[in-house]
Amino acid sequence: MPNERLEDRLKAMLAERLMLKFRPEEIGDGDDLIEKWGLESVQLMEIVIGLEEVFGIQLGDDEFSVKRFRTIENIAGVVREKDPRAGSPQPAADGLAPAG
Amino acid sequence: MSETPGFFPARDGTPLYGVYHAPSEASRVAVLIAPGLLEERKSAYAVLAGLARDLAAAGHPVLRFDFRGSGESGGDPAARRWAHLPADLAAAREALLRLSGRSAAALAGLRLGAALVLQEAARLASPAVVALAPVLKGSSEVRLWRVRSKMRAELTAAPAPGNSGTDRTSGLSPNFPGAALDLDGFTVAPEFLDDVARLDLTACSAPLPAPALVVQVSHRETPAAEHERLVAALGPMAQLACVRLEPFWDRVEEVDAGGLYQNVRRFLAGVSL
């Protein structure tokens, strides 16, 4: 896959960091991660840490709410809001970096 | 092997609970296991009990215990300060030395317990230290506690009339600096939050005078930079092990901690009596 959507990168991050027992592509962009996939508050925290570590997103203490981390779509919205460049398709890990 | 539960007094008389694991043949260094605190102590209970049994089977006399205001120990959690914990650790070490007939004990700890054993190892003349997933920066930990508490409050708040069940943002509990924190049913006093926020192992600059094993427990099989920095700061006798394992101190589900046990057992087998 030459390019990865932000949503797919987020799913891959979730699957890796949370050591999920299911494949990331099984998660729908709009799936409720709590109701459908059984994530708990502590795992939402792991997503927050992942956004900070992997995407370099810094969140203020007043920016946390369950709603913003409840679906992949919403998490992608947080990332785009904080860093519009992060929302662009990115080279896959083994792909070539864009020129220039 | 036998397991003997019981109480021993902290220096101020607070009864501390512990379980002594006596090996069939005590051929290795005695080990004191310091747990985490709050929810982490509860979630990690089975893994630390398993570690104690694993080490006892390998010939280590082991004592695992609860800090004051935690688990089965006495003391008011609201009155607990960080300054109490070194004294509790020292009292537990004395109990282990008495029970095992040894003159020294290796210290092992999980999360805040790991930060504490690294802090106290030199003072307690520990012949070896095992730090399992140590809390490196207290201020970051307290921030995460606050965020988690806020999210948890949102998840457990009753839906307001007319609201759907998926947008439960009403009923937030106070969650600001200076207030006590409700962390999944464990109330954390503001003074203790301040104490923890002051912890900073990333600023650690004094090498340990004893072998140390820092265990990174995470989804990664490669070391994180902050763990590498800590091990470098602990000096040439420190080493890092990366164990790919769910953060069991945060999980309700059972985990297979065999890899963790193996790393700790191997390290302690090399520590002379």
Describe it.
The complex is a heterodimer of chains A (100) and B (273). Chain A has a single domain, classed as Orthogonal Bundle (Non-ribosomal Peptide Synthetase Peptidyl Carrier Protein, Chain A). Helix content of chain A is 37%, strand content 4%. In chain A, strands 1-2 form a two-stranded antiparallel ribbon. Chain A is mainly α. In chain A, helix 1 packs across helix 3. Chain B has two domains: 205 residues, Rossmann fold (3-Layer(aba) Sandwich); 46 residues, no CATH class. Helix content of chain B is 34%, strand content 20%. With 273 residues, chain B is an alpha/beta fold. Chain B is built from eight helices and ten strands. In chain B, helix 2 crosses helix 8 and helix 5 packs across helix 6. The interface between A and B is medium-sized, with 21 and 20 residues.
How are the SSEs ordered, and which strands pair?
The complex is a heterodimer of chains A (100) and B (273).
Chain A: E1 3-4, H1 6-17, H2 41-54, H3 72-82, E2 90-91
Helix pairs in contact in A: 1-3
Chain B: E1 2-9, E2 15-22, E3 30-34, H1 38-43, H2 45-57, E4 62-65, H3 84-100, E5 105-110, H4 112-120, E6 129-132, H5 138-156, E7 181-183, E8 186-188, H6 190-197, E9 212-218, H7 225-234, E10 238-244, H8 258-269
Parallel strand pairs in B: 3-4, 3-5, 5-6, 6-9, 9-10
Antiparallel strand pairs in B: 1-2, 2-4, 7-8
Helix pairs in contact in B: 2-8, 5-6
